[in-house]
Amino acid sequence: MSDSTSDQRPGKGRVFVRTDICKGCSFCIDFCPTDCLTFSNEFNAKGYHFPVLSAPEACTGCDLCGLYCPDFAIYGERWKDIDARQARGKPQPVPPPAAPPAAKPGRQAPVSADPKGVLTGLHFMDGDHAACEGALAAGCRFAAGYPITPSTEIVERFAARIPMVGGVFIQMEDELASSIAVQGAVWGGKKTLSVTSGPGFSLMMEHIGLAVITETPGVWVDVQRGGPSTGLPTLPGQADMMQARWGSHGDYEIIALVPNSPQECFDLMIKAFNLSEIYRCPVMFMMDEVVGHMVERVEIPSADKLEVVPRKLTTKPKGEYLPFATTSEDLVPEMTKAGEGYRIHVTGLTHDERGYPAMNAATQDKLVRRLMRKIRDHAEDLVDVQADFLDDAEIVVVSYGITSRIAKSAVDEARQRGLPAGHLRLRVVWPFPANRIRELCPRAKVFIMPELNMGQMVIELERAVGRQAKVVSMPHAGGSVHEPEAILKTIIEAAS
Question: Closest Cα partner for 281 from 178, 148, 143, 373?
Fold first, then answer.
């Protein structure tokens, strides 16, 4: 897009785009009040579609696109302001340069799992027990929890297994106590796990925010059930998905994984612990009642076949270590543990690199931006999806958790009927794979999203798709699962 003004001036203004730094988030398109922006079919050097002024006659130069752009890649300006600026002889303003992309977080090289925690062999076990075995294999040696259906079996097994492995389980008086106990254990040097379901997950949210700002790694398991409140304690739901992302207060990014089988409860639990150590943050593990209680074959490899990421502990001299110091190349600080002789101060207040409270706008800006960037800058590295029949799919079913197994059955039946259907299953839901969705938009005409809630992750799907395709939500209040026939019927209707 040329930066010079034109004698033919449609609309009341225009926009300027730095295509090279755009990350394709769609905020400018979503918030444009006159619908004058759309995504280009071209890609920039980062691999993202960037916005173009598709309806210049509608542009008012209001600059809402610039206000909402997180990367300062676009701004709007009215023609009269452009003329006035040029009459004063001032050069055309350009957006500030983008912050350099962060390098991959510095991390310890993966090591083999501790054989004491690995129950190698073929087993028939439910998802709750498999999740426990995954945590033990990942090196978790401390868990705190409070009994709540349908998650109790995880900590019951942990309590039975941990004396043979070497570690501690504590049943706390409530979810508040358990969610803070695990953080104390982390700073004592342990990998930790906390387990709950919907009502307890709500109680833990303040402490999850504390884990975010203190950069305390660990895994929080939510075996979802029907809600709100006590709801359906023994029946499935998937209505905590937005709570996992937005449940605590303040600005932050989160990582959340969703298994759909007992085998994945084991496999993805190891991945969840590894990610929590790599990014030094809490990781959410969003199961559901059906996956937690279904019994299937689970293959647990030998310890030498499992890669575990150890904690990135500092090797600096004690007088030089700052617990929250980072570099431009690595936004994740090194850790230490209490009792090693290092000076550490851990607080939920806005803090400087020493960990000491520094409650001012400048420190808040620096800290919050880093907490978000250390995950947001690596969102594409975190994408984990399973794709089926997407090469020619005009109808794409997007799903996660237990719903994905039913959706896959419906898509398989649709393919047998000759319908151009495909399936995209999310294994990591936060960060949401928006760019992967957008890559499908040139071919896909309809996206269908069944969920055991009244429409939560479909909001992210709609944001990613924008106006490029139709999005059909298939809500379900929980208590049971979708019938495959219902999803198949929606696919057939979309194809007609």
Answer: 373
H-type helices in 214-358, by residue range? 241-246, 262-279, 289-293
Domain boundary among 290, 308, 326: 308
| 422 within 8 A of 411, measured Cβ to Cβ | yes
Quick one: 77 and 143 in the same domain?
Answer: no
Phi (first) and psi of residue 185, to 5 degrees: -65, -35
Number of structural domains the chain divides into? 3
Orientation of helix 198-213 relative to helix 361-376, angle to 10°: 120
Residue 21, in any domain of the structure? yes
Question: In this structure, are 303 and 182 located in the same domain?
Answer: yes
The per-type count for the chain, helices as H runs and strands as E runs, is: 16, 21
Task: Write the pLDDT tens digit of every residue in 154-187.
Answer: 999 999 999 999 999 999 999 999 999 999 999 9
| Residues ≥6 apart with Cβ < 8 Å to 365 | none
157 and 62 together in one domain: no
Domain carrying residue 50? 13-87
Q: Would strands 255-257 and 282-288 be described as parallel, antiparallel, or unpaired?
A: parallel
DSSP sequence for 113-129: PPGGG---EEEEEEHHH
Q: How far apart are CA 387 and CA 421, in angstroms?
A: 11
Mark whether 389 and 282 lie in a shared domain: no
pLDDT in tens, 448-477: 999 999 999 999 999 999 999 999 999 999
Residues 45 and 133 in one domain: no
Residue pLDDT, tens place only, 68-86:
888 788 988 888 888 887 7
CATH of the domain at 215: 3.40.50.970
Find the helix or strand (DSSP H, E) in which 413 lies: helix 402-416
Return d(Cα 11, Cα 3) in angstroms, integer: 16
Where does a domain end: 71, 87, 103?
A: 87
Long-range contacts of 39-48 (CB under 8 A, 24+ apart): 39/438, 39/466, 39/468, 41/442, 44/19, 44/20, 45/20, 46/20, 46/21, 46/22, 47/435, 48/22, 48/23, 48/24, 48/435
Task: Looking at the structure, tell me whether residues 167 and 237 fall in a common domain.
Answer: yes
